[in-house]
Amino acid sequence: MRIVVKVGTSTLAYSTGNLNIRHMEIMCKVLSDIKNAGYEVILVSSGAVGMGMGKLSLNKRPQELALKQAAAAVGQCELMYTYDKLFSEYNHTVAQILVTAEDINDKSRRENFINTVHKLIELGALPIINENDSIATSELVIGDNDTLAAIVAKSINADLLIVLSDIDGLFTADPHKNPDAKLISKVNEITPAIKAIAGGVGSKVGTGGMITKIKAAEISVQSGCDMIIANGMNPEILYDIIDGKDIGTRFIGEKKK
Ligand code: GLU
């Protein structure tokens, strides 16, 4: 089984941009264990800009393009250094792939990307993918890693896409504002009503929100891959997902209906 896991900045870093050591340690341990159990794991990780913020002592997410790109260049190093260190403890080899929208849109570059990911999986390495934020231009940008993760899942025929977020899943209303909001555990079809309730829920350090997750779910389910939105605050939740427990919100891939 091939699983793409997307982890957002809100799981990896505090709102200060500093590393959330506890989350990262648990997540790398659990992913290593899942890989040991025989699953193929591909990680789509945000955090470059967020961690660059922390390292450069910027007190808010940069708006200016050049500053954002510089922060990403610094933060991506920190991110991969941390992944390399933590996964090495469990004998796993990480590999960084940074992509831009052009790499996805251009047929031969996309094929190269897919071939590299396949080769890394074959070699037993753990591909860690992010958008190349230091190079991507504001006109031509994938823009959020929910979409990137769905594109990756689709491109490599993943069986499951797990999007770890700072929320339990998709709710009937914004749970921060409405205490009666209920978790929707299964979505068979992404209807306009589902899109409407996704609203504009976002986070302080990442760029995603529920809307980008629904867009990602559309890409994923159209390619036949189930997508689950789950809370990354306890990365051990990944075990429950692998065990088939009813966690978060599951969008059902089209061919499986
Ligand atoms: N690629 C961005 C980063 O690493 C994150 C995009 C997102 O939050 O979805 O900071």
Question: How are the SSEs placed, and which strands pair?
Answer:
Elements (H helix, E strand, L loop, with lengths): L1 E6 L1 H4 L8 H16 L3 E6 L2 H8 L9 H24 L5 E6 L1 H5 L1 H16 L3 E6 L13 H11 L4 E6 L20 E2 L4 H7 L11 H13 L3 E6 L5 H6 L6 E3 L6
Parallel strand pairs: 1-2, 1-5, 2-4, 3-4, 5-7, 6-8
Antiparallel strand pairs: 7-8
Helix pairs in contact: 2-4, 3-4, 7-9
Glutamic acid binds next to helix 3 and strand 4.
CATH topology: Carbamate kinase
Major sheet: 8 strands, mixed
By CATH, the architecture is named: 3-Layer(aba) Sandwich
Q: Largest beta sheet: what is the strand line-up?
A: 3-4-2-1-5-7-8-6
The portion of residues forming beta strands comes to: 15-25%
Q: Could you walk me through the main structural features you see in this protein, from its secondary elements to its overall organization?
A:
With 257 residues, the protein is an alpha/beta fold. It has one domain (2-251): Carbamate kinase (3-Layer(aba) Sandwich). Helix content is 43%, strand content 16%. The protein has ten helices and eight strands. The protein has helices at residues 9-12, 21-36, 48-55, 65-88, 101-105, 107-122, 145-155, 192-198, 210-222, 237-242; strands at residues 2-7, 40-45, 94-99, 126-131, 160-165, 186-187, 226-231, 249-251. An eight-stranded mixed β-sheet has the order 3-4-2-1-5-7-8-6, with helices on both faces. Helix 2 (21-36) crosses helix 4, helix 3 (48-55) packs across helix 4 and helix 7 packs parallel to helix 9. The longest helix is centred in the N-terminal third of the chain and has 24 residues, at 65-88. It is globular. Bound molecules: glutamic acid (GLU). Residues 8-9, 46-50, 72, 130-131, 133, 144-145, 206-208 line the site of glutamic acid. Glutamic acid binds next to helix 3 and strand 4.
